[in-house]
Design goal:
alpha/beta, Rossmann fold, two-stranded antiparallel ribbon, globular
Length: about 250
């Protein structure tokens, strides 16, 4: 698997820390509502820099924090947490092995996203839970204006060329239904933030990471300048959160 925003980048840790700061509260809210508790075995697929894996380790029996590049996970030292280098596309996943499987902002970056989603579903034990969170471009391109819109369009086009599909997750609940999961539920979270805030910095760094691949890097520079303006508010991308239980159990 080739990831278009690799952890080897010098500012990758900061970018992922910002992503965690923005999304961990929602992830934790859903995990608690789905019953994550002591005794559970968990898989965090695409663990990033590990904040949610650490949260799981404090509340469950065991956690596998898997990522294709584990350099940002090396600081995790919880005794019940295993860091595992794994390509979710090609490496073996144990069947029916986990009570809770979670994946966040990973599948949209993979051309093999549907196959990986199916593999994650088969890793859930009967009665266990799959929780998936993925970004969608809506509603930015219909709301944003000026330099902010131009930067988003340039970023969107470049990421599509790199194999990212920012529209794939709009059908995520139906995809879980089709995999045979039970009790499927879903939620859409929109993003609204002030310039200079943590979400603004996250998107600024995301654009910066692919700046040299964009045909007009000056568009990214103008967009990043706008994002730093603390007097402005911005609509960001949406997030589809979907969950379901494996049959049986």
């Amino acid at each position: 698997m080739s990831y278009p925003l690799p952890n080897a980048w010098e500012l990758a840790r900061r970018r992922l820390e910002l992503l965690e700061a923005c999304h961990d509260p929602t992830t934790i809210r859903h995990a608690e509502a789905l019953g994550v508790s002591p005794g559970w075995r968990c898989l965090e697929a695409g663990a990033g820099s590990g904040s949610f894996a650490r949260w799981l380790a404090a509340r469950t029996d065991s956690v596998v924090a898997a990522d294709i590049d584990v350099r940002l996970l090396e600081q995790l030292d919880e005794p019940n947490l295993e860091v595992r280098q794994m390509d979710l596309v090609t490496d073996d996943l144990p069947a029916a092995a986990f009570d809770f499987v979670h994946c966040r902002m990973v599948l949209m970056h993979m051309p093999e996203r549907d196959d990986v989603l199916a593999r994650l579903a088969t890793a859930v034990r009967p009665g266990g839970v799959l929780l998936v969170e993925e970004g969608v471009i809506h509603p930015i391109l219909s709301i944003a204006t000026g330099a902010y819109l131009e930067a988003w369009q340039a970023f969107h086009d470049t990421m599509r060329e790199l194999g990212v599909d920012p529209h794939w997750a709009v059908d995520l609940p139906q995809r879980l239904d089709a995999l045979g999961l039970l009790g499927v539920g879903a939620e859409f979270d929109g993003e609204l933030f002030r310039g200079g805030s943590e979400p603004a910095e996250f998107w600024s760094l995301s654009w910066l990471q692919v700046r040299d691949r964009i045909g007009r890097p000056e568009v990214v520079d103008r967009g990043r300048e706008v994002l730093a303006d603390t007097s402005r508010w911005f609509h960001g991308s949406g997030t589809i959160v979907a969950w379901g239980r494996a049959p049986g159990g």
